[in-house]
Amino acid sequence: MEKGFDRVVNEPKSSPKPDRSQPLSMQHLQACLSTYFDDIPDPRVDRTKQHLLKDILVITILAAIAGAQGWEDIENYGLSKQQCLEEFLELPNGIPSDDTFRRVFEKLDPKVLEEKLSQGLQQIMGSVCQEIIPIDGKSLRGSYDREKGLKNLHLVTAWASGQRLVLGQVKVEDHSNEITAIPALLELLDIAGAIITGSISNMQ
What we know:
Largest sheet: 4 strands, mixed
Radius of gyration: 19 Å
Number of domains: 2
Order of helices and strands: HHHHHHEEEHE
Mean pLDDT: 79
Number of helices: 7
Strand order of the largest sheet: 3-2-1-4
Structural class: alpha+beta
Helix content: 25-40%
Oligomer: single chain
Low-confidence stretches: 1-18
């Protein structure tokens, strides 16, 4: 990202899927990021909107990819890349503050955001037909809370082997198991023609 972003010129709204035999172009990535958040409901009151929801989400994703660890990191990323970001984002009032990023994400529906991220990732990747998609469950170490009696967070993940990318994740609900979480995960993904594999533990 040090070299910035190429300006998008006349990129159609429904851009063609990339040729996966070639590296993903920055132009295609920008076009996808600029369109697949358009229909996410904005939880804010109109009079408080100084920044576009799409701008906030795109900056957050790019900052996270670049290694941002918190809201201040996201703001600092935006400020350091502002000139590049202005080439494909509107940014009517500049880069949002760290408090703005925090407040917006506190109000967003995480399930809607997760679904859109999964769809956007697959739009960028293209078809997974004939690819092997392993389904696996993992517990996150250190995610338990003894004081509140909370167990480790357990996630079921779909992994695109050919692309070496996580396609989606869902949480295994308390007093349930991975088998019940898998259908919810598959509903988020367009995996027609893919080969699904998995090693499932019967956790309670």
